[in-house]
Each structure stands twice: as structure tokens, then as C-alpha cells.
Amino acid sequence: MAAQYQLVMHSGPTPGKVFPLEGDVITIGREAGNGIIINDAEVSRKHTQFVFQGGKVIVTDLGSTNGTFVDGQRLTGQHILQSGQIISLGEQINLLFEAVIAVDPNATMLSTGRPLVPPVSAPTPPPSPVAQVQPTPSPVYAGQVPSGPLPSTPAPAQSANSRVVIAIVAVILLCLLCSCGMLLWYVDANSLWCKFLPFLSGCS
């Protein structure tokens, strides 16, 4: 993309006005024959000249009354301009020199003398949690001494034995209750309370 150049008036009769620098030789002055006409008392009839040479822009004062300045320094000969420098015509007129780059034939040109807004980057997503992998116990082979105690597992035989004992105790208690009940029924049916319990009232 070929670089082109322009002047932007910062102070003077028309602040903010853009003057494209097109052509091999361009002059600034007050009279109608100049490529850029600035009608101001500070500007001479032919004040300053811009020459394009080898891809660079060379500025020269044309013997003006009030002088041409670059960044506050008065020109006494030729000066190669850099983008962003201020060209002053006298004391009141200040022009910003800019290099612009054409993006495409139908698009506006981007200025290299003014900072562009940086693109907004998307937020970085937080890292996903890493699942912890439980270590797999190593198998123990015959004749190998384990490095640590093996996990103990409950013996199924012991729990079965406990259930059998509980069942036997329950059956014994049930039999005792049945026997006691039958004995009480027999004593009551045959009126044997006084025989077994003579201290009861009514027994003589």
C-alpha cells in the first residue's frame, strides 16, 4: 500500500481543514497560483514548497516574510519531513504533517500520525478443573511382600454365624415364654395356686 501525505490545520483561518499533498511539487501561498491557498496576512504570496523525491517529502521555505518553521525551528534550507511534525507559517498558522495509508480505492485513508484504538481482546476463559485420578492398588503376587497393609474386608462367614446365633436365642426365648404360659394356664385351670403359692390370701 503506497503512503500518501496530507496537512491538517491546527490553528489558522480554517482549523481542522485537511489539505491533501498530491503531485510532485506543491506550493503554499496566499495567491491563486499555489496548490494550497491560505488567505492570511501571515502567509506570503509564495510561502513554502513541498517536493516529493524518492518516497520522501522535502519542505523548503520560498523566502517568505514571516518564515517557515518545523517543530519550532526556522528553515534555512531543505528539510525531510517526518509524520507527526508541525509546520508553522509565521506565528499563527500551524499545520500537522501526516502520512496516510490507503486501505482500498473506495475506503478512507488511515492516518499514521494519530494513535488508533487497540482492539478489545476477548476474556480468557478460566481453565477447566482437572479431575484427580485415584491410584490403582498394585496386585500382590505369590512370594511378594506387600509394601503396605492390604485393605481389610469383612468376612462373610462371621456375619452369617452372628445371624444364626441370634435366631437360636430368639427360638429359645419363644419356647420359654410358651412354657411359662402353658404352666400358668395349667395352674389356673386346676386351682393349684394355693399349692404353689400358700402365702396368697384365701389359702388356709
Beta fraction: 25-35%
General shape: rod-shaped
Reported for the largest beta sheet, the result is: 7 strands, antiparallel
Question: Which percent bin holds the helix content?
Answer: 10-25%
Amino-to-carboxy terminus distance = 139 Å
What structural class do you assign from the helix and strand content? Answer: alpha+beta
In short:
With 204 residues, this protein is α+β, with helices and mostly antiparallel strands. 19% of the residues lie in helices and 27% in strands. It has helices at 156-189, 193-196; strands at residues 3-11, 18-21, 25-29, 36-37, 48-53, 56-61, 68-70, 73-74, 79-80, 86-89, 93-102, 109-111.
Description:
- β11 (93-102) and β12 form a beta hairpin.
- The chain is rod-shaped and about 160 Å long.
- It is of the alpha+beta class and 204 residues long.
- The chain is built from 2 helices and 12 strands.
- It starts with a strand and ends in an 8-residue tail after the last helix.
Topology:
Layout: E1 3-11, E2 18-21, E3 25-29, E4 36-37, E5 48-53, E6 56-61, E7 68-70, E8 73-74, E9 79-80, E10 86-89, E11 93-102, E12 109-111, H1 156-189, H2 193-196
Parallel strand pairs: 3-4
Antiparallel strand pairs: 1-2, 1-11, 3-5, 5-6, 6-9, 7-8, 7-10, 10-11, 11-12
